[in-house]
Write a structure and sequence with these properties.
Elements (H helix, E strand, L loop, with lengths): L10 H15 L9 H7 L16 E7 L1 H6 L8 E8 L5 E10 L3 H5 L5 E4 L15 E6 L5 H20 L6 E10 L4 E12 L1 H7 L3 E2 L12 H13 L13 E6 L2 E6 L39 H10 L3 H4 L11 H18 L2 H7 L9
Parallel strand pairs: 1-6
Antiparallel strand pairs: 1-2, 2-3, 3-4, 4-5, 5-7, 6-7, 8-9, 9-10
Length: 365
C-alpha cells in the first residue's frame, strides 16, 4: 500500500514556490491577508517560544462555551471565543483571550470534547506563556475517564520519541487542564491534556515553509527524513496516514526539497486505542500488526537510519522513566517497551528487515 510515483514530480513546483517566497521577502510584508499569505511573507528570524521551551507541567483553565463546541462536529466549524488562564512565573493570575475551533476526523465526531485548535491575536500574547504563538493544537482525553487519559499520555509519548529522531517534528507540552463552561459556569472536566506545536512554527523553526499541495509521493520527498519518518511509523505501528492526501502528514518545503512531518498517533498499534482499526484495504486485521507504509527512501539511506534508531534505543525507554512517563501505568510501560523491542529485533535481522521494509517499497533502488 505504498503510494507510487506520479507522472509529474512536484520538485519544480516546490522550487517555483520558494523562489516566489524569496522574491516576496524583498518587498514590504503586507499588513493584511490570509494566514497562509502572512506566514509566507514573514521573514523575521525564528525565536524560540516560551510555551515549548520547558517540559514542566502547566496548570491551566480553558473557559469556553462547551455546549457550542460539542455541536461543532464538521470540518468547517466556526471559531468560538475562549479564555486561557494560568499562574505566571510571579504567581499572579494571567488570562489570555483566544479563539478555539474543533479539529480532527474520528475524534471530532466521537469524543466528548473534540481536539481543538487555538488561535491567538498577537497583541494578546505579549509577555505571556503564549508569546510568539499564532496557533497551537490542544489534545484532550477523548472521554472523561482514567483509561482515556492514559491513552492521551501514551500518544503524547510518541511525539516525544519522534523528537528524539528529528527536529523536523512537533514539540509538545503537558498540562493539567480544567475545562470550564462559560454558558453554565460549571466545570466540564479536569484532566491531563497536551499542546502540540503548530505546523507553521515547526516549519519556520526548521528554516522552511508549509507546503499544502496534495499529490506528493515518496519520490518527491527528501530521502533522509523520509527514511526516518517511515521507520518511526513502523516502530509505533501507525498506518493511519497518507502523504499524497496530506492525511495526518504535513510537508515542509526547504531548498527545493519537501520534508514529511507526521502527527496524530492515536491510531498507532502501540497505543492500541479501543476505537482504532486499520483501513479495510490494508492486509492487516489489527492495528497492533506492523505494516510498513513508507514514506520510502532509496535503499542506501537505510543503514544510517538504522544506526540512528539504534543510537536512540536507550533514550526511548528513558522517556517512560521521567516525570511524564511515570504517569503511565507500569504494566502499560512494560508492554510498550516490549513492543518496541520487537521492532529492534527486526532492525537486527537484515533478511527480515529487507522482507518487511525494503521489499514493501515499489521501485526501491
Amino acid at each position: 500500500m505504498i503510494e507510487r510515483r506520479s507522472v509529474l514530480t512536484l520538485a519544480t513546483l516546490v522550487a517555483s514556490l520558494l523562489a516566489g517566497a524569496s522574491a516576496e521577502s524583498q518587498q514590504k510584508a503586507p499588513a493584511k491577508g490570509t494566514r497562509k499569505e502572512r506566514i509566507a511573507a514573514d521573514t523575521t528570524p525564528y525565536k524560540p517560544t516560551a510555551l515549548f521551551r520547558s517540559s514542566d507541567l502547566i496548570e491551566m483553565t480553558l473557559t469556553m462555551n462547551v455546549r457550542q463546541i460539542k455541536k461543532d462536529r464538521k470540518e468547517d466549524a466556526p471559531w468560538r471565543a475562549a479564555t486561557l488562564s494560568y499562574k505566571n512565573l510571579e504567581g499572579a493570575n494571567a488570562e489570555v483571550p483566544a479563539r478555539v475551533r474543533t479539529r480532527g476526523i474520528w475524534r471530532m465526531k466521537n469524543c466528548d470534547i473534540p481536539p481543538l485548535r487555538i488561535d491567538f491575536a498577537k497583541e494578546n500574547v505579549k509577555q505571556t506563556l503564549f508569546a510568539g504563538q499564532d496557533r497551537v493544537k490542544l489534545v484532550l482525553a477523548c472521554h472523561n475517564n482514567d483509561r482515556y487519559e492514559g491513552l492521551l499520555l501514551e500518544e503524547m509519548q510518541l511525539y516525544r520519541i519522534y523528537r528524539l529522531l528529528t527536529p523536523i517534528s512537533h514539540r509538545v507540552r503537558l498540562l493539567h487542564l480544567t475545562v470550564a463552561d462559560s454558558g453554565s459556569n460549571k466545570i466540564e472536566m479536569t484532566r491531563l491534556a497536551f499542546f502540540v506545536e503548530d505546523e507553521a512554527e515547526v516549519t519556520k523553526r526548521n528554516g522552511g515553509h508549509m507546503f499544502e499541495v496534495k499529490g506528493a509521493t515518496w519520490h518527491d520527498l527528501e530521502p533522509e527524513t523520509s527514511a526516518i519518518v517511515g521507520l518511526f511509523q513502523y516502530l509505533i505501528a501507525n498506518t493511519d496516514f497518507s502523504v499524497p492526501a496530506l492525511h495526518n502528514m504535513e510537508l515542509m518545503a526547504r531548498d527545493t526539497s519537501m520534508y514529511p512531518i507526521a502527527y496524530d498517533f492515536d491510531f498507532a498499534g502501540v497505543v492500541n486505542a479501543p476505537y482504532a482499526i486499520p483501513d479495510y484495504r490494508l492486509p492487516i486485521k489489527r492495528v497492533t500488526q506492523r505494516l510498513f507504509r513508507g514514506p520510502c527512501a532509496p535503499a542506501n539511506y537505510y543503514p544510517a537510519t538504522i544506526d540512528l534508531f539504534k543510537a536512540r534505543r536507550d533514550s526511548i525507554p528513558a522517556l517512560y522513566r521521567d516525570e511524564i512517563g511515570k504517569r503511565i501505568a507500569p504494566n502499560r510501560v512494560k508492554e510498550i517497551i516490549e513492543y518496541f523491542d520487537d521492532f529492534y529485533k527486526i532492525l537486527g535481522d537484515s533478511r527480515q528487515f529487507k522482507r518487511e521494509v525494503l521489499d514493501a517499497c515499489p521501485g526501491l533502488s
